[in-house]
Amino acid sequence: MNSPPLDDRDGVIWYNGKLVPWREAKVHVLTHSLHYGNAVFEGARIYNGKVFKLTEHSARLVKSAKMLAYDVPYTVAQLDAATKLVVAENKLEGGYVRPLAWRGPEVIGVSAIGTKVHVMIAAFPWGAYYQQKAIRICTSRWKRPSPESSPAGSKAAGLYIICTLAKDEALAAGYQDALMHDYKDRLSEATGANLFLVLDGELHTPTTETILNGITRQTVMDLARKRGLTVVEREIWPEELARASEVFLTGTAVEVQPVGAIDAREYPVGPVTQQLQSDYAALVRS
User: Fold this and answer.
1) Active-site residue, selected from the candidate residues 143, 155, 184, 226
2) Which of 1, 182, 238, 263 has the smallest set of CB atoms within 10 Å of its CB?
3) Dihedral sign, CA of 44, 48, 49, 50?
4) What pLDDT sits at residue 85?
5) Residues 224-227: contacts with CB within 8 Å, 24+ apart?
6) Residue range 158-171: average pLDDT?
7) pLDDT, tens only, 218-248
């Protein structure tokens, strides 16, 4: 059975400082961010009624907006409190939180000067991102741009255009996601998750020059170090996939997700991936 569309549900959404009925949380069609992609957003998961690493997510929303030359009109503490209120009011023990900040409809044109900044926080039930134990991904033709061409460290809506294109092409080809290279043809990340390879017993992950330094990415790296694993952040090239003994993705939505195949090359769900999956699951529910 299909779930109801996201604009037609019961519950409340925190919208510009107050709770409003879910179906009344709307914007005008001439909203600047709808036309120019300069909204910023977050995604956080709820476990046992609590949002995991909430403050980190709120802080990143504020940082993302600053990178796009505007300020979120609420403090991190206010965003934290609003998120907790939304989760409680919607009576969620598990699920997903989506904060969004955007520029309003005061002006139309490339310049956003003079627009008002709006913020909303929604929370709703959400299960596993993938249905497969180990997913199959393909190499995308779309590449992550140079940091001179995009604010890579910002979770900006406009940066996800190529992610949607890459993922939809992968799904149409029978895969579950796509692996993106960057402008130098280095390994980068999946469409919404960071990439890890196990090489000679060490954990390797691409540098953050062209990708979002995921909160789950950082968490899993800490868990790996606590297990005594060597963690290496560096440039990684496509030919190195042939040497990897395990591959997995990390992200708030995907958590720790094994990759069973990249294009025609297959990988086992190995002990490192399984251990980090277990450690992460225990941490978020602790």
Assistant:
1) 155
2) 1
3) negative
4) 98
5) 224/272, 224/276, 226/279, 227/275, 227/276, 227/279
6) 97
7) 999 999 999 999 999 999 999 999 999 999 9
Helices marked H in the chain — which ranges? 32-36, 54-67, 76-89, 161-172, 215-226, 271-284
What's the average model confidence in pLDDT over 100-125? 97
Give the residue range(s) of CATH 3.20.10.10 domains in the chain.
135-284
Euclidean distance between CA atoms 286 and 284, whole angstroms: 6
Residue 98 one-letter amino acid = R
Where are the CATH 3.30.470.10 domain residues in the chain?
Answer: 12-124
Supply 57's token pair. Answer: 């997510």
Cβ neighbors of 47 (< 8 A, separation 6 or more) are: 94, 284, 285
- Helix residue ranges per DSSP H, 90-230: 161-172, 215-226
- Proportion of the chain in helix, strand, coil states, percent, rounded to 5: 30, 30, 40
Its CATH architecture, for the domain 135-284, is: Alpha-Beta Barrel (3.20)
Q: Is the pTM of this model over 0.90?
A: yes
Per-residue pLDDT averaged across 277-281, rounded? Answer: 98
**Known catalytic residue: 133?**
no
CATH, range 12-124: 3.30.470.10
CA distance 211 to 121: 24
Rg of the chain over all Cα atoms, to the nearest angstrom: 19
Burial of 149 (0-12, 13-18, 19+ CB in 10 A): exposed
Residues contacting residue 243 through CB under 8 Å, at least 6 positions apart: 199, 200
Structural contact between residues 20 and 10, judged by C-beta atoms closer than 8 angstroms: no
pLDDT at 2 over 80: no
Average pLDDT of the residues of the chain: 97
